[in-house]
Amino acid sequence: MTDFVLEGRRVFVAGHRGMVGSACVRRLQRENCEVLVAGREEVDLTRQADVESWMERNKPDVVIVAAAKVGGILANDSFPAEFLYQNLMIESHLIHAAYKVGVAKLLFLGSSCIYPREAAQPIREDALLTGPLEKTNEWYAIAKIAGIKLCQAYRKQYGCDFISAMPCNLYGPGDNFHPTGSHVIPGLLRRFHEAKLAGAESVTCWGTGAPRREFLYVDDLADACVFLLKTYSESEHINVGTGDDITIKELAEEIRRVTGFEGSLVWDASKPDGTMLKRMDVSRLGELGWRASTPFTEGVRKAYDCFVGAQC
Ligand code: GFB
Fold it and tell me: Which of 40, 94, 135, 142 is 20 to 30 Å from 266 at the Cα level?
């Protein structure tokens, strides 16, 4: 099959202010295409009429669905209504409007939390819907599974070239560094940094530290998105990751080194661990010819630089 050509196309990055969307905008600048963005003040993606009228007026050729309500384990567990409702609305409106205005290619982004909590490791794409989900993020997961199914349904019924990619846990510049609402890497970068400045004796991390996670630098994900837009055109979603994982304890040690905090680590087991294992099988993407390139320590350093304001 010949590659899909991005050059000269109008590419709408929905969610361009978020970590993933902004990385996609950076990456697309090397593609000779026209990047379209729309801030929340211009179009509220949870409002169907807003989305349809914006799409009618702007007629993109390509859409990247990087807009979503996202957060770490505690935010997912605490705000189930927002995570389910907002994500269902955003993806439904964008996918339906893309069909209506005849978008040539759409990439929907989900998350590795779509897979069953006890899925065999590494997790293959065909593990989807084979078992119960992890409770702390089932709301977000259900919305993301619905997004995959929407892409498949519009492909099956209308022949739309809509594809889905499922990244592992992401991190990098532009992340949300909120002390409690964020994911583990930005959350710990902030906590260790503040503890170092305060001369604190210890830092408290959540859970037991035993769960394992696979982390991908966000600019690597953006590169994979461009690669998939050009080369992938199948109904089945595709995993995007490094294929490697580390324990949260190992991660905390890495963050201690990067931030230069010299005190000790305390584990608060009253906070949830979430799923214990979620390493993805990335062999399908590897066979297509893509792999991640940013070494983990380098990526964490760049995220830290972003947090302390040196460069972002
Ligand atoms: O990054 P995180 O919130 O994502 O948590 P999930 C990963 C692990 O790090 C959990 C532990 O075992 C946490 O208990 N952890 C330790 C911490 N200290 C901290 C901390 O200070 N902050 C945070 N956030 N975690 C999310 C899902 O789950 O992953 C989303 O809820 C999404 O739906 C996202 O899929 C990628 O991997 O547990």
Answer: 135
Q: What is the pLDDT of residue 1?
A: 61
- 180: in domain: no
Is 165 inside a domain boundary? Answer: yes
* Domain membership of residue 19 as a residue range: 10-175+214-243+278-294
Whether the pLDDT of residue 311 is over 60: the answer is: no
User: Can you give the pTM of this predicted structure?
Assistant: 0.97
Listing DSSP states for the chain in one string gives -PPPP-TT-EEEEETTTSHHHHHHHHHHTTTT-EEE---TTT--TT-HHHHHHHHHHH--SEEEE-------HHHHHH-HHHHHHHHHHHHHHHHHHHHHTT-SEEEEE--GGGS-TTPPSSBPGGGTTSSPPPGGGHHHHHHHHHHHHHHHHHHHHH---EEEEEE-EEE-TT----TTTS-HHHHHHHHHHHHHHHT-SEEEEES-S--EE-EEEHHHHHHHHHHHHHH---SS-EEES-S--EEHHHHHHHHHHHHT--SEEEEETTS----S---B--HHHHHHT------HHHHHHHHHHHHHTS--
Q: What is the CATH number of the domain that holds 231?
A: 3.40.50.720
261 in a structural domain: no
Closest C-alpha residue for ligand 1 atom 33: 137
Mean pLDDT of the chain: 97
Question: Is pLDDT at 310 greater than 70 in this prediction?
Answer: no
206, 247, 259, 271: residue to mutate for ligand 1 pocket, most atoms within 8 A of CB = 206
Res 2: pLDDT: 73
pLDDT at 198: 97
Number of structural domains, the chain?
A: 1
User: Does 181 reside within a domain?
Assistant: no
Measuring from each residue's beta carbon to the nearest atom of ligand 1, which residues come in under 6 Å?
72-73, 76, 111, 113, 136-137, 140, 169, 182-184, 187-188, 205-207, 211, 213, 248, 271-274
